[in-house]
Amino acid sequence: MNDILGLAGAAAALGIGMLIGLERERHKGRGDSRACAGLRTFAITALLGYVAMQVGGGLLVGIMAICLAVLVSAAYWRSLGTDPGVTSEVALFTVLVLGALCGTAPELAIAIGVVVAGLLTYRQKLHHFARSQLTEAEMRDGLVLLVAALVVLPLAPDRFIGPYAAINLRTICTLTVLLMAVGAIGHVAVRNLGVRYGYTVSAIASGFASSIVTIASMGHLATKEPDNVKILSAAAMLSNLATVTQVGLILGAVDIGLLRHMWGPLLCGLAATALYGLGLMFPNPASGTHQPIKVGGAFNLKLALGLALAMTGITFLSSMVLSHFGEVGVMVTATLTGFADAHSSTASIASLAKAGLLPFDAIAEPVLIAVSSNSLSKCLVAWVSGGRRFAAYVIPGQVLLTLAMWAGILLH
To answer: Which residues form the MgtC/SapB/SrpB/YhiD N-terminal domain (predicted)?
Structure first.
């Protein structure tokens, strides 16, 4: 059995070395100016790392790395005049380490090897993206998202604190990162899909930040472009896909068990919204409706932070009302806060359930009350921002969405 595992590790190391070596072989050049390492060098280096780890452990791998550093340094200085880059040299060290890793975690080594090969293969496209397509605002937002996801989130304590034990910093950070990540994904989708479906895709992406703001924006555009009111109404309605989806994501992020009591309303809400929105979109609207919504950064950091703070306050208020008035107090809180944002109410209700202050099977009604009051708020916004014609398309859709979600309770 050990012999089989050993052969599998050696085969994984050889595969990694050959994969990265093939990519480097295609770019090493010919003649006296060719690079120092190609297919054979990378394959042998990977096997060297594997054998060194099996024979002498980490110490021998370190000695081999030092020897390799001497050889690579000599080759680098020899080619400094023609190729000042160090990509191949760094890739060679990576292959040595990955070969050594194949002895204990071959799956991880293979996955990292594939990623490295991909980064090397798409060098030109990555350079073009970084230099020509990525804006300063997008770069800033990307760094903020990485810091929040990789630094702040792991450091946030996962325990309930506060007078009513209703606030969990890990949950708050998770929801904030989730909001920023989904907004960034939507932003990338808009950039890649082009202008044909710009309104719809942008509305869905913006809906993850605030569907009410998105509907107001579509209504404002409808007053300026009355010929496009139907496609703008469809985009406004489809922004509710983000609302319903995020309700599910929030429940799952807090506790996956909460979804067992909400899958019916969520599926019915998604289906009703999609059918109504697509019904407005097709047949194809008139020309001139494919202008994209101008976007700045990848996501709205202020909205993400605002949602986190609002969720914190609402969670504390809900737990306090629940403590004094029972589950009836949660219904009242969900109704009032849902007018501004269904996400915060959903997050606070889910946090109460996870903390044991509310039964899991009692979350459906307060969540749907929050969604219903949020739909009423959207109807008012549609009427004020887009006028009677815009509201005539949006209000029936909001009513259909709300009724469908309430009907979804019957599926349980």
So the answer is: 12-128
